[in-house]
Structure of Arylsulfatase:
Amino acid sequence: MKSKLLVVLLCYLPWLGMAEAANRYISDNVYTYLRTGPSNQFRILGTVNAGEPVEQLGSDAETKYVQIRDAEGRTGWVNGEFVQTEESFRSRLPSMEEDLINTKQLLASVDERHELDIQDKTSRLQQQEQELSQVHEQLNELRQQHAKLETENQRLSSLMDDKEHKMRLDWLLNGGLVAGAGVLFGILLPMVPLRRRRNQGRWMN
């Protein structure tokens, strides 16, 4: 009995200068046994799952075993080959899942905003197309009105030309008549006194 106690004490001698506790992780690809001492000769307390975060309490330089405290609060020894300083995938998994959920929500939000933006732009485009169609209709109406006005203007211009031509003819005709009447009157006027004188001479005789 005393010899067994002595062996245990000798095994714990390297732990007199034990370092402070540090966070460690069991390798992702294995699960390991948790033992009561720093070698596979000691009794198994249980198993530690692969990737599980543990707290390193110390190590045995001779056997390369590491003393840990697991998530359940158990303290024991595991093979140091199965302990790593980098965070395991299993330990990162919850945060990765949370990041994935956040990313999906962000993508959904982006998709929703993108869809709303597309709907808004589509609505604006349809509105602009309607306004453009109305402008085209108004332009066609203005063109038709312009064509009617131009036709009416041509008709009125033609009437004005005809009226001016007729007025000119009337003026020429009236002027000709007046001139003719004046000439005739000028011819007949000198002849009237002569007849009167002749008649007076006959009466006197």
In short: The mean pLDDT is 78. DSSP finds two helices and seven strands in the chain. Strands lie at 22-26, 32-35, 44-48, 53-59, 65-69, 75-79, 83-84.
